[in-house]
Amino acid sequence: MRIPVLKKCCCGCMTVRTGSIVIAVFGLVCYGITLLMCLALITGLADWKVGLAAFLPEDVTRQTSVYTVADVVVAIVWIICDSLLLVGVLKMRRKLMIPFLGLQLVWLTLGTIAAIVLFVLFAVNSGSTIFVAVTAVVFVVLYGIAVYFFFVVYSHFKELESSPPPEDVKHAQESPESVPLGDARESSTKSPV
């Protein structure tokens, strides 16, 4: 099965290169905020019972607070991968995009497994079918966006495959005598008159 390659992203509004930059910056902002929120929870500057957590049962809230340190680690890993993606796109270095693509693929796979397990647990243990339904809809929308982000970055990754490495481009621009080989031979064989 081949992975689809896009020519444009955001309904044709921008190139996949620009889309990859937007995705990297978006990821840096989101995971930066996540990191700050988790650090605020760890240091006691914030409380879990705000936002949607106020609607969760107490035992779920307690279990969730245990994973804050794991959230910090995940946020740091994503910040590193998004930073590498941004540098890779800006400097046209495909290899720097690989950590993002690999992590995104693993994340999508593990996210699917975790979502199935959580939906089953919530459906069995929770009396609120509305909560389960809303969670399922939110997951499907976010998962679809994440898959699309993967396709956009992968498409730019494949686009760079046919481009010359940045060193070759830089070398050709710096060389003052960019003479084709055939012309160089002719000029060296002619004697000055």
From TrEMBL:
UniProt biased composition (Basic and acidic residues): 160-174, 183-193
Phylogenetic placement of the source organism: Eukaryota, Metazoa, Ecdysozoa, Arthropoda, Crustacea
InterPro entries: DUF4728 (IPR031720)
Entries under Pfam families matching the protein: DUF4728 (PF15860)
PANTHER family: LP21121P-RELATED, PASIFLORA 1, ISOFORM A-RELATED
Record's keyword terms, sorted: Membrane, Transmembrane, Transmembrane helix
Organism: Darwinula stevensoni
Coiled coil regions in record: none
Region listing for Disordered, in residue ranges: 160-193
Protein name: Uncharacterized protein
